Amino acid sequence: MTTTVDRFAAASRMEWIKLRTLRSTWWTLAVTVAGATGIGVAVGANSKDASADLTNNVLAGVAPGLLLVGVLGVLTMTGEYSSGMIRATLAAVPDRPLLLAAKATVFGLVTLVLGEVTAFVAFLAGRAALHGRPVAPGLGQPGVLRAVVLSGVGIALMGLFGLGLGAIVRHSAAALATYVGVVFVAGQLLLAVAPAAVRWVPLAIVGDSLGVSRTAAGDLSPWTGLAVLCGYAAVALGAGAWSLTRRDG
Predict the structure, then answer these.
(1) DSSP string covering 135-185, please?
(2) What contacts 151, CB < 8 A, 6 or more positions away?
(3) Which residue among 11, 84, 113, 121 is least packed, with the fewest CB closer than 10 Å?
(4) What is the span of the domain harbouring residue 229?
(5) 218 conformational bin, left if phi > 0, alpha if psi -120 to 50, beta if neither
(6) What's the total number of domains in the chain?
């Protein structure tokens, strides 16, 4: 008799095959690492203020990574609807919550590896661009390793947020607009009407709470910020599972 674990494993294998055979997956992964590294080097080379958090400076390229991975997350889900593949997928895995769990597990693991590679490569390249200045941050210094690791985790969580939005909205353009609005635009709007709320926006959390060796007054602590990002991903995936269950493929 097939158990839930067996069905989950089979669904995960299917999702892995689909994800790795998409050319866009590998292009997105490569551009994310290259873009974050290039920005980290550029910002690091131009960092003149020794009092600034240079760890945060060389991790500046993580922000564009959030866009790329979020787009990949959205399209991983909405692409199945636009191509009609979702019917075959649901025929193979009728348990819709299990299907989304398998998709999220595979996508989450891939983007977690991507996030950590991106963060560490960007950090090391950006640090090298500081030209050996005494203030160059090292992984052994307080808060630095945590900042790099949590930046990578943040990339993965925002990818899962995008995946959840794709399951909820189902249409690529609308889901992408929602993702960009929540992650990138909301902070600018809140800055004008409720500045204190900006710290709860994903982009601000990644940049000001996760990717710093020391947190500024008024920002969320690294672990609080991580918990909030987990909440974003969990709510999106939970709503996506509900949507998959209640609506026809």
Answers:
(1) T---TTSTTHHHHHHHHHHHHHHHHHHHHHHHHHH--HHHHHHHHHIIIII
(2) 59, 62, 115, 119, 206, 210, 211
(3) 84
(4) 4-246
(5) left
(6) 1
